[in-house]
C-alpha cells in the first residue's frame, strides 16, 4: 500500500479549509484516510498561528513509514523544517507571457524609466534656477552698498 500525506478539502463553496491527512494513494481526495495530521486554512492571514497546524510527531512517524508528501504538503513541511525544502517552480513556462507581451512590458518599463529621468532632470533644473536668482540678487545688492 503506497501512502501519501496530502490535503483533503473541507468547508463550503468559496470557503475552503483543508485537513492534512495520510491516506492510501488510491483513495479519493476527500475519501477514506488513515489519520489526520493537521489542518490548513488558506483564508487566514499568512502570519496567523491557526493558518497551518501540524502534528509534527505523527508526521515524522509516517515519513519514517515511507509516506510521500504531495507537492504542496512537502512545501509546508519544508517551511516547518521537517524535511528538506523542495524545489518549487512558481509558474510553469507554458503560462508565461509570450514574446509580444514581454516586449510590451519592456517598452512600458523603458517609458517609465525615461519619465523618471525627465522628472529628476526637471527637479534639478528647478533647484538650480531657484539657487541662481539668489546669487544674482546678492551680487546686485553688494555694488549698491559700496
Question: How do you describe this structure in short?
Answer:
The protein is 45% helix and 21% strand. The protein is α+β, with helices and mostly antiparallel strands and 146 residues long. It has a domain at 3-80: Ribosomal protein S16 (S16 Ribosomal Protein, Chain: A), CATH 3.30.1320.10.
Task: Looking at this protein, list some descriptive labels.
S16 Ribosomal Protein, Chain: A, 146 residues, Ribosomal_bS16_dom_sf, alpha+beta
Q: How much helicity do the residues have?
A: 40-55%
Order of helices and strands: EEEEHEHH
CATH topology of the domain at 3-80: S16 Ribosomal Protein, Chain: A
CATH superfamily of the domain at 3-80: Ribosomal protein S16
End-to-end separation in angstroms reads: 105 Å
Biased composition (Low complexity): 123-132
Organism: Micavibrio aeruginosavorus (strain ARL-13)
GO cellular component, one term: cytoplasm
GO molecular function: structural constituent of ribosome
Task: Write up this protein.
This protein has a domain at about 5-80: 2-Layer Sandwich (S16 Ribosomal Protein, Chain: A), CATH 3.30.1320. It has 3 helices and 5 strands; from the N terminus they run ββββαβαα. The protein has a 5-stranded mixed beta sheet. With about 150 residues, the protein is of the alpha+beta class. The chain starts with a strand and ends with a helix. Keywords: Ribonucleoprotein, Ribosomal protein. One of its GO terms (molecular function) is structural constituent of ribosome. InterPro entries: Ribosomal_bS16, Ribosomal_bS16_dom_sf. Belongs to the bacterial ribosomal protein bS16 family.
